[in-house]
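User: Earlier you gave me the apo prediction for this protein. Now I'd like the version with flavin-adenine dinucleotide bound, so I can compare the two side by side. Same sequence as before, with the ligand SMILES added.
Assistant: Got it. Here's the input I'm using:
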Amino acid sequence: MQTSFPPPSERSRLRRLPAQASYRPDDIEAILDAAYLCHVAFADGSGVHCIPTVCWREGRHLYIHGSNGSRMLRSLLDGSPCCVTVTHLDGLVLARSAFNHSMNYRSVVVHGAFERVGDDAKAAALDLLMDHIAPGRRPHVRPGDATELAATTVLRMSLAEASAKTRTGGPRDDAPDLGWDVWAGVLPFSQHREAPRRDEDGPASGTAEPSWWLGR
Ligand SMILES: Cc1cc2nc3c(=O)[nH]c(=O)nc-3n(C[C@H](O)[C@H](O)[C@H](O)COP(=O)(O)OP(=O)(O)OC[C@H]3O[C@@H](n4cnc5c(N)ncnc54)[C@H](O)[C@@H]3O)c2cc1C
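And here is the structure of the complex with flavin-adenine dinucleotide:
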């Protein structure tokens, strides 16, 4: 990762293992684009919350959406401060000492506040969500109607105050531990995709199965 981009704010500056940090927009966007969900932390009158929700990115903004009745969305509508995280777990790192065990990961933290996406831009933003989840599917499904659109809130948050942190590679044992006779290395993770399963309700015709899912 490049570290030539300085932290956008003092509260975004990684203190521990700063060599694993990046504030470069390309690095941050690549981690966000690989995600389907984020966790949104915010506080309201009843306490502090951290809620998982679907996310997608367009330009220098991260988007979330949901029912107008969502407590989280209603709380965020007034521009309250919040913090959003995205994490991909890439491996368990097994060191020779208990202390040096670690994990490989890519993560992003965004500080700031959400703003409402206006009615003029809401449908286009939701189109991007569909494109993010299932590229090429949008022209084939029944489009959202005015009632569905009116029942949905879309918010976006600037990526101006974002940081990324990435760990890769094997264990970093202390030299005296290298002779310790125990298996050491990485137990890697990857997202495992399985064959699409057609829903049996409705006609069996229609568009071909989403072969892109398995990279065919
Ligand atoms: C899967 C996983 C497991 C982890 N396990 C541990 C653990 O067991 N113990 C531990 O201490 N740390 C762990 N971390 C690292 C942890 O997320 C923080 O990076 C670490 O605690 C940073 O501490 P700090 O005092 O330097 O920064 P802080 O003062 O806590 O953070 C300062 C700022 O740095 C940025 N930042 C901090 N962490 C991240 C991050 N991960 N990604 C992007 N930006 C970030 C944010 O903008 C934050 O506001 C783990 C991370 C991941 C992804």
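For your comparison, keep in mind: The beta strands are 21-22, 37-44, 47-54, 56-58, 61-67, 81-94, 102-116, 152-158, 162-167, 185-188.
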